[in-house]
Amino acid sequence: MSNISIDNNSPISIYQQIANQIKTDINKKILTPGDKIPSEKWFVDNLGVARGTVRKAISLLVKEGTLEKVQGKGTFVTKPQISYPFAQELVSYAETMKAKNINFSTQVIEKKIVEPTKEIQRKLKIDKEQKVLYLVRLRSVEDTPAILTFNWISLDKCPEIAKVDFNNVALFAAIEKDAGIKIKYGIRNFSARNLNKKQAKIMELAPNDAALELNQVTFAANDEPIECSDALLRTDQYKVTSILYR
């Protein structure tokens, strides 16, 4: 932290001055998301204030969502939880991140051409002989895994899709370019599930940790299904937002 000083003659309360200076350090990126702030004793010793005053300042910032307390570890600068309009808009992860000016990375875990299972045949309205591209990707924000996606794309409709470098190209854009048709809408279902050992390892969580599961079928402008997907979202990274009108 930067050097904090207290003005005893200021009309601003001491606890508010402490809170304000912590927020100033965050805004100036002296403290960044995930950083641990000094202990209560550090503030008491360096500022000559009562422990109760320090606790009041920290509690204020915790209540605001600026800081978070972790039992047995200390108090940390809150990592921003990103809100996504998954419940009301058909937008891809990449489109959402770019719209919010958030830096993210994509890692292709697996990409191969496979025969569709009966479930995928049903969703994409294809036969067993009609192959699909199976794609697994991990999307991360600030090097923290956020979403693990599993996609199945119809090769009948997107014959060149397997050649795309999905580390750098967004899926919806690639589908529209290859198929020569716009994506029109999608049908999504939400549920909760526990991660298996492999999924948990990729997402840097513990086996059986809860995740938000999103299942989707995406339709082209001709109302034909062109892609389906399953996505596992880390609940500490994602907040699903829905605006409802009456």
Structural account:
- The chain has 246 residues and is an alpha+beta fold.
- Helix content is 26%, strand content 32%.
- It contains 7 helices and 10 strands.
- A 6-stranded antiparallel β-sheet has the order 4-5-6-9-8-7. It has a two-stranded antiparallel sheet with strand order 1-2. A two-stranded parallel ribbon has the order 3-10.
- The model has no long low-confidence stretch (mean pLDDT 88).
Give a brief rundown of this model.
This protein has 246 residues and is α+β, with helices and mostly antiparallel strands.
**Radius of gyration using CA atoms only:** 23 Å
Shape by Cα distribution: elongated
Taking all residues together, what is the mean pLDDT? 88
Sheet-strand content, in percent, reads 25-35%
Write out the strand line-up for the largest beta sheet, numbering strands in chain order: 4-5-6-9-8-7
Characterize the main sheet: 6 strands, antiparallel
Question: How many angstroms separate the termini?
Answer: 48 Å
SS content category: alpha+beta
Q: What percent of residues adopt helix (DSSP H or I)?
A: 25-40%
Tally of helical segments: 7
Unreliable residue stretches: none
What is the tally of beta strands? Answer: 10
Instruction: Sketch the topology as an H/E string, one letter per element.
Output: HHHEEEHEHEEHEHEEE
Topology readout:
Layout: H1 14-27, H2 40-47, H3 51-64, E1 67-70, E2 74-77, E3 82-84, H4 93-99, E4 104-114, H5 118-124, E5 132-141, E6 144-154, H6 171-179, E7 183-194, H7 197-202, E8 210-220, E9 225-234, E10 238-240
Parallel strand pairs: 3-10
Antiparallel strand pairs: 1-2, 4-5, 5-6, 6-9, 7-8, 8-9
Helix pairs in contact: 1-3
